[in-house]
Amino acid sequence: METTRYKIIIQYDGTNFSGFQIQPHDRTVQGDIEKALKIMTKGIEIKIQGSGRTDSGVHALGQVIHFDYPIQMPIANMKRALNSLTTDEIEVCDVEIVSEDFHARYLTTGKKYQYRVDTNKDTNPFKRLYTKHHQYPINMEALQQALKDIEGTHDFTSFCASNSGRENKVRTVYEASVVQDAANGELIFTFRGNGFLYNMVRIFIGTLLQIANGRRPADDMKRLLEVKDRNQAGPTAAPQGLYLVEVYYDLEEATKGTAFYTPETKKMGVN
Amino acid sequence: METTRYKIIIQYDGTNFSGFQIQPHDRTVQGDIEKALKIMTKGIEIKIQGSGRTDSGVHALGQVIHFDYPIQMPIANMKRALNSLTTDEIEVCDVEIVSEDFHARYLTTGKKYQYRVDTNKDTNPFKRLYTKHHQYPINMEALQQALKDIEGTHDFTSFCASNSGRENKVRTVYEASVVQDAANGELIFTFRGNGFLYNMVRIFIGTLLQIANGRRPADDMKRLLEVKDRNQAGPTAAPQGLYLVEVYYDLEEATKGTAFYTPETKKMGVN
Question: Which residues, numbered 38 to 67 in chain B, qualify as contacts with chain A under a Cβ-Cβ cut-off of 8 Å?
Answer without folding.
Answer: 59
